[in-house]
Prior knowledge:
The protein is mainly beta. The chain is built from 1 helix and 10 strands; from the N terminus they run βββαβββββββ. It has a single domain (30-119), classed as SOR catalytic domain (Immunoglobulin-like), CATH 2.60.40.730. The chain has a 4-stranded antiparallel β-sheet with strand order 7-6-9-10, with no helix packed on it. The protein is globular. The two termini are 13 Å apart. Fe (ii) ion is lined by residues 36, 41, 63, 69, 110, 112-113.
Amino acid sequence: MAVFFKDANGNFFTSVKAGVGAPEGFEPVEANSVDAAREKHVPAVDLERDGHIIHVQVGEVAHPMEPEHYIEWIALEADGRLEVHALKPGQTPATFFAGGVKSGRVYAYCNLHGLWVKEF
Length: 120
Ligand SMILES: [Fe+2]
């Protein structure tokens, strides 16, 4: 499982290797640990075209994408790789990843409500 760390400026450090510790000045970010609406934050994962395309929306009910409250990025962890798609306010809280994997994790980061993960 990928690990995520954040510093006071909002920068992230992440790794897919087990046992990686926080760099100096970074704090661990735990997924699904903030008390907020799960249906707006837990990524909804759809394997399309026989799994060749992974469609992700945040969440079951689309999350707001306002400048003061939005999904900063969506990431796919599968097969030892981590692919991050950055988003901006005004965009749809969704993205596509190349598939070809049967299982993995999808992460979403809300600027107000933190990190969320869904296994598939
Ligand atoms: Fe949020």
